[in-house]
Design a protein that fits this description.
The protein has 104 residues and is of the alpha+beta class. The protein is built from two helices and five strands; from the N terminus they run H-H-E-E-E-E-E.
């Protein structure tokens, strides 16, 4: 009797590579386009950020990064207006143009 060896397992190799393709397709479907904010919304976001920073209040911020929308709940440590960067208490940072929504 002849041993088929690796030939016997070749169909399972195609199943494994299809899993990688499936992951790529699902990640592409999860991508979101960045919503555009009006000038009024940007002003409200800036005012809320400054108020929370001066009063040391925890914020809930919705932001856009790498074609995905994220949320975080943190206190602001520093606002750098030159770079338009917000640094949080754990030294995580985001830029002003990434922010979509802010609530106290």
């Amino acid at each position: 009797m002849i041993d088929r060896g690796i030939i016997k397992w070749q169909p399972f190799d195609s199943v494994m590579s299809s899993n990688e393709i499936k992951k790529i397709i699902l990640s592409e479907k999860a991508k979101v386009n960045k919503p555009q904010l009006s000038e009024d919304q940007q002003i409200i976001i800036e005012q809320t950020l400054l108020e929370a920073w001066h009063n040391n209040i925890k914020l809930t911020i919705t932001y856009f990064k790498n074609n995905k929308i994220y949320k975080l709940d943190k206190k602001i440590l520093k606002i750098i207006s030159i770079n338009k960067k917000i640094i949080f208490e754990d030294y995580f940072f985001i830029y002003f143009d990434q922010i979509l929504k802010v609530s106290i």
